[in-house]
Amino acid sequence: MLKWQTKEGYKRLLKDLVSIPSITHHDGELFMAEHLHHTLSSLDYFTKHPDYVRHHPLPDGRKLITAFVQNDPSIKETIILLSHFDVVSVEDFGEWKHLAFRPEELTAKIIENKELLHTFVQDDLNRGEWLFGRGIMDMKAGVALHMSMIEKATTGHFKGNVLMISVPDEEVHSEGMLAGVSVLRQLQEEYDIKYITCFNGEPSFTKYPGDTSSYMYTGSTGKILPGFLCYGKETHVGEPLAGMNGNVMAAEITRELEWNVDYVEKFREEATPVPTNLIQKDLKDHYSVQIPHAAVTLFNLMLFNRSLSDITDMLISSAKSAALRLEDRLFERSKNVSKIVPFTPKKEKIKVLTFNELYEHAVTKYGQEELDRRENMLQTNNPNADERELTIQYVFELASLCRDISPMIVLFYTPPFYPAVCSSDHPLIKATSDEVVNHAKNTFNSELVNVHYFSGLSDLSYIGFHGDSRDLSSFTSNFPLLGSRYHIPFDDMRELDIPVINIGPLGKDAHQWTERLEINKVMDETHPLIIFAMETLFDQAKNQI
């Protein structure tokens, strides 16, 4: 008897999944992996094929889960169902955080206190059957839908194989999927199968308050996190013109990049957001009357098609523009002061360089062995440090060693990195997405909108990579932690190179205490639409062979 194909069965499964507090980097992630393995193993198919549902450990002990259904060994075509089971923390629930993982009780409490809600939330409650809870839309609902698809696959419904992979740690660094890429490669060889599509189940995000549209995504936005270490010159506050303030340097970089439309990319009717600052601070660790001569500023930068080498060139160009303005301003201010206090102003030159150029200069001065020693010591002494902070400290240490070339602005990259991926023009995805849109209209009278890039960032970013060696080198050579504390499996990503599509449930307010899901729409529309999309993918794959 099938358990997860009806509204009530799906609802029970979903509430069961939400009840596990699988917050990223907490014990709940471990419990969730065990629970998924146990629940999937209860299906008759897996009692007969127990080795087809598996744990796969990450280096830190967490686990991702795979479940494989193959009804005919002669069929190679396989759809990957991708999901993540971690969720963000619950501090935003305030006094109700003890209810964050108890959907029925939380929903009842919210209904009792409707007057606290925004009118958009109240309107939703008046129109449908909504369940509230942390992770219920992002993305336990998608996990439950994929488990339902696995169950349906065990009946022989689909004309191909289905492989579910559900991972931890999507919400922080996507460490689950970064490990999952090699797992997918291994399973592909072991099962002797051909992946035709990676089908993600991230929710359909509203674009504005009151948005009632449903979205299908055929790609995922990329993201990089560039930083600038601004190393000026020390001086006493009584003689500020004799040095260069790192805070002023960082502020000028931020002024150059914040809201800079030159970095906006367009793809048809879609566009990336303008860059925005995420971290800006000086690097003094105590109060003194020495100016803060070193500071750092980091930016969120979203990508579509622009190459990594072009991005690096643009960032260096922006830093040089900021440096020229700083040089001119300091010189002009010095000339003004010289009219009051007689001295001869000197125009300062600010060097702009990449981390790799700084590193090469340091190697020339101190030798490779010394730099390796310092990096190992920094990492050993800070095993639990935030990757961004560790990167900043390492770049700062190298700049301090090379202060003979200061003042300087150093470009570097820090985790996380999400490559952009888009399959809108892939023949299989284009044919399938057209049919899915028409089916949604004709069957459910629903206007399903095809979006080329999922804007919320997703693990689909790691399903393929198309950058050439020069392009990649301009990025990786300026990424201090890459290969030591942070790993990206570029080779496996290139080998996979699978087209992608994302169809998930319509939810509201991800990462907010009003996160919610409309159960009727999930089972009346999304569930059958995913079945139709998978059927179409298999049919189209056969037609295009």
UniProtKB/TrEMBL annotation:
InterPro entries: Peptidase_M20 (IPR002933), Peptidase_M20A (IPR050072), Uncharacterised_RocB (IPR012166). Transmembrane segments: none annotated. This is M20/M25/M40 family metallo-hydrolase.
